[in-house]
Design the sequence.
């Protein structure tokens, strides 16, 4: 089951609208401010496929200014904005990843080898320090520890002060059963809005909740999941969980486990 959610209203209007199937609430946060404003959640049935999503995609637009460094803004349902941070090697993506040369002239580093839908268990990144692209595995440490990866020079985001930043993650969602794991990926593309340095940022985020045949983690507590457990989850479970159509039915999480995953992805 797939669900898209986005459509963030302007923070200056004091509201936040998030299209999801569950009432988790929504928080507006400005960096440098101590106050958090928690706002009620509104569900839009026309944008939802159903509950218990095993693959969720979030979309949205953000704005950074000197006085309010991070605000979520809404433009429609956000899907068109999210495509601006999605590689053009994936369906509908507008970020010009294909213009990057393959690192080491290796075809395995071509964006088509690691589309943003993640079913290849790889994700695309611009190699730091050069205009070359690289496919990275969820087995790498940057995914296991959810390292933030800044990237500069993408076509359309190549002015001083503009950048693309991404993060991949392998997790055991907190409180989920020990046979539940998840993978997730987020990319944010930030473009200058004016000479004062304000930026408009576009977000693409996708993740999967995966139910393994056997326990992969010793504890239900997320922070107790070890790097070895997360690697084994990728090698022995996630590697068998996908086919050309997406997540196999036998690997889909039920509604209870999906709820733990959704809470993780919202905060990822």
Sequence:
């Amino acid at each position: 089951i797939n669900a898209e959610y986005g459509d963030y209203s302007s923070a200056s209007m004091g509201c936040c609208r998030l299209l999801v199937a569950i009432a988790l609430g929504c928080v507006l946060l400005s960096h440098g401010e101590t106050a958090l404003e928690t706002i009620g959640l509104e569900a839009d049935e026309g944008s939802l496929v159903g509950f218990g999503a095993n693959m969720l995609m979030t979309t949205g637009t953000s704005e950074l200014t000197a006085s309010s460094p991070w605000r979520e803004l809404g433009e429609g349902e956000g899907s068109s904005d999210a495509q601006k941070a999605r590689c053009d090697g994936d369906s509908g993506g507008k970020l010009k990843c294909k213009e990057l040369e393959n690192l080491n002239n290796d075809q395995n580093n071509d964006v088509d080898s690691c589309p943003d839908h993640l079913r290849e268990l790889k994700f695309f990144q611009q190699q730091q320090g050069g205009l070359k692209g690289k496919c990275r595995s969820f087995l790498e440490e940057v995914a296991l520890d959810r390292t933030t990866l800044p990237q500069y020079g993408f076509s359309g985001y190549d002015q001083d002060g503009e950048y693309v930043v991404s993060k991949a993650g392998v997790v055991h969602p907190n409180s989920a059963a020990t046979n539940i794991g998840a993978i997730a990926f987020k990319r944010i593309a930030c473009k200058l809005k004016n000479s004062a340095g304000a930026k408009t940022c576009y977000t693409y985020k996708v993740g999967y909740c995966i139910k393994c045949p056997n326990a992969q983690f010793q504890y239900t507590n997320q922070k107790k999941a070890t790097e070895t457990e997360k690697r084994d989850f990728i090698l022995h479970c996630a590697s068998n969980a996908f086919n050309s159509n997406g997540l196999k039915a036998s690997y889909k999480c039920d509604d209870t486990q999906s709820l733990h995953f959704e809470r993780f992805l919202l905060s990822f």
